Amino acid sequence: MSNKAFKYRFYPTVEQENLLRRTLGCARLVYNKALSVRTEAWYGEQKRVSYSDTSKLLTSWKKEAELSFLTEVSSVALQQGLRHLQSAFTHFFAGRAKYPNFKQKRNGGSAEFTKSAFKYTGGQVYLAKCAQPLPIRWSRFLPANAEPSTITVKLSPAGRWTVSLLVDVDIEPLPKSDNQIGIDLGITSLMTLSTGEKVANSKGFKAKYRKLCKAQKALSRKVKGSNNRYKARERVARVYAEIVDARRDLLHKLTTRLVRENQLIAVEDLAVKNLMRNHKLAQAISDASWGELVRQLEYKCEWYGRTLVKIDRWFPSSKRCHSCGHTVNKLPLSIRNWTCPSCAVQHDRDINAAMNILAAGLAVEVCGASVRPARA
């Protein structure tokens, strides 16, 4: 059994939108108040405040006259917000994430409902304190006999309402394949495969960025706090949403194709955050979305019985000749084709790197060999 989320758009009625906006606002308020308490306790007294402590604080906050409106929304959404804050602190203290940030209204918001706060019956979703089912656009149906364990309602900065249903499903592995492939991620080409195929980056982003630039200029001219500025901010958010949708659609199609066709996929373990510090290439790297691409490959390979091998980022895939194994000392990015000084074989830089990545991935998979270059 695997957890799988099914995400849908929905268009709430006026009453539903009013209730959901209040729910998101209350969840955001409780999260921020709990974060403030935990921050003051940590930096003031070096004391850790647990989830149970914030849960008790929530009970006392509901009894205060100025916060009595917290009782008008589902308590489950508020408690789930406190649990998410606890998870954020757990990751922070483990060194896996930065210190939690305060939530802002302009970023939309989300609320999570567990089984006690919703009802799924007859193909309809009923949330707590809401008499009518959510008017969901069912673009695809849930698996037969699937029962959602949690439901997350989200409002994006662009004003889109979405609902995600998390269900346990049996995913059948794909038939075994004899194909194996190495992937070299890049900017000129989104990816180069060890078969010699090059997948180009989408050219539609340039037009979308011109549209985004125009919308941002219009936003900068609006008076802060005015209704026109609010409308302009939403227009900017909608352009951002178009860019994100186009990027995800491209990546999902590519990763699904790669997983279906290949039994083993080898890819470099890149430090994308470090690469983004190069301001000349930051936007191109962001458009390529290498981190999201690898993330999709990871869970899809796990679902469908494929093998994903990550190669050490220091492995000299571009500088090593896949024919004889000779490694050159320097190979600037401007050089796209080079000739091996040892065996005189001519190489396309990216195809050679993809073939070396595949060879290294096979070595790791077969014998667990290290492909990290030896250091003096």
TrEMBL record:
Record keyword Nucleus present: no
GO biological process: DNA recombination; transposition
Annotated Cas12f1-like TNB domain residues: 290-357
InterPro entries from the UniProt entry: Cas12f1-like_TNB (IPR010095), RNA-guided_DNA_endo/Transpos (IPR051399), Transposase (IPR001959), Transposase_put_HTH (IPR021027)
Superkingdom of source: Bacteria
Pfam name, any one: OrfB_IS605
Keywords: DNA recombination, DNA-binding, Metal-binding, Transposition, Zinc
Domain Transposase putative helix-turn-helix: 1-47
One MF term in the entry's GO annotations: DNA binding
UniProt xrefs under PANTHER family: RNA-GUIDED DNA ENDONUCLEASE INSQ-RELATED, TRANSPOSASE
Family: In the N-terminal section; belongs to the transposase 2 family. In the C-terminal section; belongs to the transposase 35 family.
Name this polypeptide is given: Transposase
Originating species: Leptolyngbya foveolarum
Lineage per the UniProt record: Bacteria, Bacillati, Cyanobacteriota, Cyanophyceae, Leptolyngbyales
